[in-house]
Write a structure and sequence with these properties.
With 356 residues, the protein is of the alpha/beta class. Strands 12-11-7-10-9-8-13 form a 7-stranded mixed β-sheet. Helix 4 packs parallel to helix 5, helix 5 packs antiparallel against helix 11 and helix 7 packs across helix 11. The radius of gyration is 20 Å and the shape is globular. It starts with a strand and ends in an 18-residue tail after the last helix. It has 2 domains: 137 residues, 3-Layer(aba) Sandwich (Rossmann fold), CATH 3.40.50; 184 residues, Dihydrodipicolinate Reductase, domain 2 (2-Layer Sandwich). 37% of the residues lie in helices and 20% in strands.
Amino acid sequence: MKIGLIGTGRIGAFHAQTLQNVQGVTDLVVADADTARAASLAGTLRVRAAASIEAMYAEGLDGVVIAAATSAHATLIHQALDAGVPVFCEKPVALDVPGTIAVVERARTRAATVPVQIGFQRRFDAGYRAAREALRSGELGWLHTLRACTSDRTPPPAAFLPTSGGLFRDCSIHDFDILRWLTGREVASVYAQGSNRGAAFFSDADDVDTCAALLRFDDDTLATVTATRYNGAGHDVRLEVCGSEGACFVGLDDRAPLPSAEPEPKLSWRRAADPYATFMERFHDAYVTELGAFIEVAAGRAPSPCTPAEALEALYVAEACERSRRTGEPVAVADVRATPGPPAASAAPGGGSPTG
């Protein structure tokens, strides 16, 4: 299969390396608005760089992977649909709800012939999958509490923030998606707060570097979701799933950045000698499995495991959290559905998200 890749920044380069080793991929061509960067990556990986995105499609593709800047996702998905090429796109679908709805509606009309898969890689992580099975099998009893955290070790560059969509849409959206996927329930309402104690460029971009949200699901299950750009101990992504009969914890491996305050901790792990530094380390295996699944989708052997419509549901929650942060009041997700807000400005394709 001939696969195209758009966006040759950090995550794009990582995906390109992965695709070279995915069974069924026989030809890989890369493209970027920054043609020099695309050429550099192509030279490193010994693959081909197209002169432009349009030239790449003109060659004929069996599938395309979009790893460009968040603000370009919607435009690039529409372009892939126009070309009739199965598409994998990193989350989110678009920066805002109206832009996402437009993609959802367009993708729905082409779903039979042009599948779209959105990149929420935690769905392919062994720990999250095991937790989902434990919950759905009845092993944990009825669910009462979920506690999720996503903590970056170091902040992204200032230039990333204006096109990121903000901390809830860029980072916590992974938690919102995985909580929906794991429980099979919808979030009914949220109450969220954010703060800035780090670099001034977060405030300058009207964003926050740390956030916390309380989610109430439609069955009255409660969840807390926290995120920060400044977790000095390391990149930390965990989930606690607590039920009436048991509990399940995701993210407690030997690289989890969890130094104990106890002088002689009784826990089975000790301070990690080599804690995760980035999301690509933490979710390396999940990304590999995810792209392998896309090749099956592009070949017509499997349905999309994460459609734009599912990504929209996670975005509704992120949007509700952002509104709550700004107003200081709880927000019903139904209100976001009813009043999605104005479209955000788009940007030229290229680049790539520094978060997972």
